[in-house]
Amino acid sequence: MDDKGFIFTTDAVLGLVVVIVFTASLITYFALPAYNGEEHQHLQALADSALSVMEQDGSLRLAAVKKARGDTSGAQLILNSELEILIPDSTAYNITVGEGSNTVSASDDRGLLYATDTVTKVKVISGPEEGWMGRAWYKLEEVQFVNQQQNVTTTVWNFHNWLSNFSPWNSRSKLATYDYWGIQNWNRYGGDPYAIQFSIPDNATILGGTFLLGANSHHNDWWYKGQAYGANVHVNSIDHIISSSNFTFLNLRPNSYETMYNYQGNLTASELQNGANSFYINFRSPVDSYSDLPWFSMLATYTTNLALPQGITTSIDNFTDCAGVAVPSAQDLDGDGVWNEYGFSYNLKTGQKTFFNQLRSVNWNSYVNRNSIYSDGTPFVLTGIPHGASNGCAVSKVVDINIPDGSRLFDSYVVINSYGGVDNTLVEVWDGSQWQTVFNSFDNSQVSDGYGNNPGIIYLRDYLKTGNNKVRVTVWDQAPGNDYDFVGLTNCYAVTTYSKLPIKWENFAFTSEQSDDRYLSKTRQFTIGSEAKQALLFVGVGTSTRHITVDYNNGTVLYDSDTVPFVLDLAALDASVAKGHVITSGTSGNYTLKPGNYTLRVTVTGPANAWESGDNDANAALFSGTRVAVIYPKFLQNIWETSYASTASEAEYNAGVTLNKTLRDAGITVDPSLIRTEAMYTGDLPNAIPVRLNLWKQ
């Protein structure tokens, strides 16, 4: 490529990069507060993501070309219009493209008076191809909202513990006398059934459900292997009778002859209902004083409708189910009398077990935020755990999330449905260059070891980049007494929304937290800017939540119900409730969002009794899957594409073809009269173009 007009040799480029990186390091160092925490990591990820998108969609090169052709204002318009979409309103920015006389800058301080957190990212991009750059753009003011249907599978109730750890089942006769879970009005002769409440969102179309029921016999005798109890799982007044022989034998517990079993039951759509549901279990013959309940999970599948701007793609990436047991020393797990198994994998759909005869074990410090052969879905022993029991029986699985180059990433979350004796959860993301911890049961928990701090939905967006990403979910059972119990993941998946259209979508995620009792209240500030058309609250709370309240922390209650929703339309609720119109103006049927900064409070209530969930204190929990989304369907820039060719006409034509495909893929009917094209000569631009992006928050 011809470098006329630029002193830009390879040595000069490398020297410039060193100077810029060194300067950026100084700026970041002096501007940062002493605590370099999660918010700073999010700011770094935001800068990386913005530069990646702008490189892939061609806006950085386009700005450089326009500056070289003398169109400084056009170059600044390209940069500003892009960053206005990619950078949240609460974050200021300054970007510089090029060097020397060919430098173009754009900035917006967003009205911030000072900076408490600053990030500087430097990138050197390759110059445009020699010849001509063609650009085609399409003028479209905004897109309409269209209905998107999404199938959701979530855990609507979960118990992870030994029922015999709770009164009255911790008596000598255990389940033989106290043959209901739940139970009420109990005395030494037994008790009455007590319905445990769970909910399914209103306005959802229910497709069906599943329950996973564990059974154990503490009878520790080689000559007599204890049977699974029989059971009646009573759901919404409908009986599901399960005989002992219907259970699948899993294994003998380590260092004993106690037996473990599992049963999977299916629920039809007609057996479940929107809003309040309930269940209890009646333990039946051959239940005896050795019988115990080690786990129970109830999952529901339903379809929800969500109005999103046209042209947004929602991608769902499913994890492969995995489950089983791993132990640190050879055991007779299959009950054949030979102590030669170190664990087994379990297929929930077929009931098939695959035993392995070699130790699978890894230390916590060698596993977390590292690539690992143990993330293949086969159980393993996790050692050196820093909180709670130092060892545990774990299982882990990874799923790939591929976000097309040049796409604007709007939202992403992972849905986790664990079962068995799962006590803790770890969620990590690989963004193409490094692993980062997104969620750890020990973090932000008022319970020292995060026991039972197992999420349903975790927010991922701030950790992802365009291209290939990976999400790893690891769950484990704490084994303080070397009781390595069965753990599993089923129907887990990641959901990601993105588009190449210049739509703006801002998320304000709550911080995950587990309370030390059955009540938890969290607040989150969020910003509504001009031209916003939709404000939603997505909900991700504990899997044994009994009640949820949403308000502004000022007496205005938006939602107060025993039904846990999947998503709430904050704007519609605000426009219709008493003391509303905090974020809206107008009437309940015709309202607009008011720009401003607001505070939302979410309060959740856990189960009435600790034995309903297995958490020692009926702990309430709220996770980062709870997030406010503010959406702007009005375009802040034209839709455009670029292409390169040896002639101006060919470059313009190719750009037009690419633009037409982008519009058609988004479902937009194209009016050819609204397409504009241009061509710019690029033969005299440098081989490398330095880019520097500063972000700061107050």
From TrEMBL:
From the record, give the transmembrane residue ranges: 12-32
Keywords attached to this entry: Membrane, Transmembrane, Transmembrane helix
What's the protein name? Uncharacterized protein
